């Protein structure tokens, strides 16, 4: 039998969380996007965060070149018609798909049925992403794959405002 985090934390549901939201310096620029709102919500809900950075799981370095969608979004990248590129023009579909699959594998191994991801990220964006120089409706590659696999996916923008 596989020992999972869910097995070791009775009564506490595991949830995938973008590592940058937890304060880990995993963003493309080596920074974090630590969110006290996220930390407070996780504590209030009694959830056990499972930190993930799909881009690091894909083997990309930190810091790394900024990446945006050139066309489509995560759903179209998965379908083979969208495109993620670095700002210098390198196509990044394969690493982003690899990171998304690794993230899904972690979700399955840890028993996560939900994910809380960083909005606007080319991997983790849930409702909004960067396409070229605009912020548009769409999902990142990892968010799209998790949604397709049946996980409930939300972003920090979906959380209730702090009291």
Arithmetic mean of pLDDT: 93
Query: Low-confidence parts, pLDDT < 50 over ≥5 residues?
Result: 1-9
Would you report the number of β strands?
Answer: 8
Task: Classify the helix fraction into a percent range.
Answer: 25-40%
Q: β content, as a range? A: 15-25%
- Main sheet record: 4 strands, parallel
**Number of helices, where a helix is a run of at least 4 consecutive DSSP H or I residues:** 6
How many structural domains does the protein architecture include?
Answer: 1
Radius of gyration: 15 Å
Structural class: alpha/beta
Helix/strand order: HEHEHEHEHEEEHE
Q: How would you describe this structure to a colleague?
A:
- The protein is an alpha/beta fold.
- The protein has one domain.
- Helices cover 31% and strands 21% of the residues.
- It has six helices and eight strands, in the order H-E-H-E-H-E-H-E-H-E-E-E-H-E.
- The protein has helices spanning 5-8, 36-45, 54-57, 74-79, 93-110, 141-148; strands spanning 14-18, 48-52, 67-71, 83-86, 114-117, 128-131, 134-137, 152-155.
- The strands form three sheets. It has a four-stranded parallel β-sheet with strand order 2-1-5-8.
- A hairpin with a 2-residue loop joins strand 6 (128-131) and strand 7.
- The longest helix is centred in the middle third of the chain and has 18 residues, at 93-110.
- It is globular.
- It starts with a helix and ends in an 8-residue tail after the last strand.
- Mean pLDDT is 93; it is low at 1-9.
